[in-house]
Amino acid sequence: MGFRLEYSVPAKCKPEHVWKKFEKVEEWGWWNPVIGKTRWLDGPRWQKGSHFLFELLRPSHRTFKPVITESELPNRIEWVGTALGFKGQHGFSFEEQSDGTTLIKTWEMLSGPLTWFMGEGLKNNLTAMYREWLEALKAEAEKIAREDFARAPSAEASRRA
After folding, report:
1. CA distance 146 to 90
2. Structure-model confidence comparison of residues 86 and 4, the more confident one
């Protein structure tokens, strides 16, 4: 028995801007209100079979050492993490939309004996945690996009050159 949770948010940026912030595991705790300590453990970064560590602060304090199971950079990453009584298969995708925005998505499939006791309250708390995480990632990615735009030469300057 298990269940799946999903959350997504549109961002005014390109997938590369989202990835530029997301890929820096060691900085997650700086901008993400639900994450504490983080670090890369072993293997090539974001490649299948590699491990990293992250401390989840909410909805309950837990430390995970997930293994990367899928890697399609810079658009999709999946991992599996376990804790006492459950297993979480987690994924993120950064999908460019036809209007030039990016849909930032996350999903998790939770399974294991502990999931039998997870009621709607805990599911709602987990979804709220994903919302905080993605809203923070969106804000950071949009900031990177604005900075890139500000540094880019304007079309007028390009025509004059």
Report:
1. 29
2. 4
Structural domain boundaries, residue 60? 2-150
Is 103 within the bounds of a domain? Answer: yes
Strand pairing class (102-111; 76-83): unpaired
Average pLDDT over the chain reads: 90
* In-domain check, residue 160: no
What is the pLDDT at residue 94?
A: 98
Rounded average pLDDT over 123-143: 94
pLDDT at 1: 62
Q: Which two tokens stand for residue 12?
A: 């005014």
List % helix, strand, coil for the chain (3-state, nearest 5). Answer: 35, 40, 25
What CATH number is given to the structural domain containing 63? 3.30.530.20
Q: Considering the domain boundaries, does residue 76 fall inside one?
A: yes
Give domain status of residue 161, yes or no. Answer: no
Q: How far is CA 16 from the centre of its chain?
A: 13
* Tally of domains in the chain: 1
Look up residue 32 and give its two tokens.
Answer: 């993400």
The Cα–Cα gap between 15 and 95 comes to 6
Is the entire prediction scored with pTM above 0.85? yes
